[in-house]
Design goal:
By secondary structure, this protein is an alpha+beta fold. The chain has helices at 2-24, 100-106, 111-128, 133-138, 140-155, 174-228, 231-241; strands at 25-28, 32-38, 41-47, 50-53, 59-65, 69-78, 84-95, 160-171, 248-250, 256-258. It contains seven helices and ten strands. The strands form four sheets. Strands 3-2-5 form a three-stranded antiparallel beta sheet, covered by helices on one side. A three-stranded antiparallel beta sheet has the order 6-7-8. The protein is rod-shaped, with a radius of gyration of 50 Å. 15% of the residues are buried.
Length: 261
């Protein structure tokens, strides 16, 4: 009976020791850092990836993901011309390894909802108000760059760094879309009319040029012909066509006078 009791006690002690050992070891995964919390107090240092020892039941190690994280945000803003712009953004950001404790200590694990998303909404509204709705579509790259700069100004002090912002989509009201389509149709009609007008002008100019060339050619030919018709040539042509008979003249009394006699 005593042996059984010793075995039970030894087993309990062994389990307790094993629990202590397991509670004393923490593995921080690759791409993460560990924030040490001692009885609720966040230590101002971080643990890098790998095995680490901690005081059982007194300390805990909270892992913070320091890899680049993608966050999609759907938000609404107003353009310079007061159009409602529904925007879908993809934000890539990371937490600086050396400041993991800072974000956890001051914001907590809900830093995306508390800090990142509100900052995205604020910066996007400020930038979108600088462009008309149409300009927003054309200047996506400039707006993305402005978002990266503006977000980093707000978030870097907390240890958050935005690496990239992609504008996935813009959506506008039906009324605005219809207005844009009508404008495009009107512009297309105007372009077609201008093209047809230019074609007609080109055709008319070509025809006028053809007539001008033809008239100049005829005038030049007539000039050459008139210069070549000297009086001697004209007389020669008359003689060449004469049949050798002199004309007859009728007298006053009806008598025919033969000039040849």
């Amino acid at each position: 009976m005593k042996n059984v009791k010793k075995i039970v006690i030894s087993s309990i002690v062994g389990v307790f020791i094993l629990i202590l050992l397991l509670s004393s070891i923490k593995t921080v995964k690759p791409g993460h850092t560990g924030v040490i919390v001692t009885m609720g107090k966040v230590e101002d240092n971080v643990l890098q990836e790998g095995f680490h020892l901690k005081v059982p039941f007194i300390q805990k190690i909270v892992e913070i993901d320091n890899r680049i994280v993608k966050l999609e945000v759907e938000t609404e803003a107003f353009s310079k011309d007061l159009q409602t712009v529904q925007t879908n953004l993809a934000i890539n950001y990371r937490i600086d390894k050396n400041q993991s404790y800072n974000i956890y200590k001051n914001i907590g694990s809900e830093y995306e909802n508390i800090l990142v998303i509100p900052a995205v909404n604020e910066v996007l509204k400020a930038i979108t108000s600088q462009y008309t709705a149409e300009e927003s579509v054309v200047n996506r790259v400039l707006i993305s760059e402005g978002l990266v700069e503006g977000l980093n100004e707000k978030l870097n002090e907390f240890g958050l760094f935005v690496t990239d912002v992609n504008i996935i989509n813009y959506e506008f009201s039906d009324a605005y879309i219809n207005a844009i389509e009508e404008k495009q149709v009107a512009q297309q009609k105007l372009l077609t009319a201008e093209t047809e007008k230019q074609t007609a002008i080109t055709k008319a100019e070509a025809e006028a040029e053809t007539l001008k060339i033809k008239a100049e050619a005829e005038a030049e030919a007539n000039d050459i012909l008139s210069k070549s018709l000297s009086s001697n040539v004209i007389e020669y042509k008359k003689i060449e066509k004469w049949n050798g008979e002199l004309p007859t003249v009728t007298g006053g009394n009806g008598t025919i006078i033969d000039l040849a006699n």
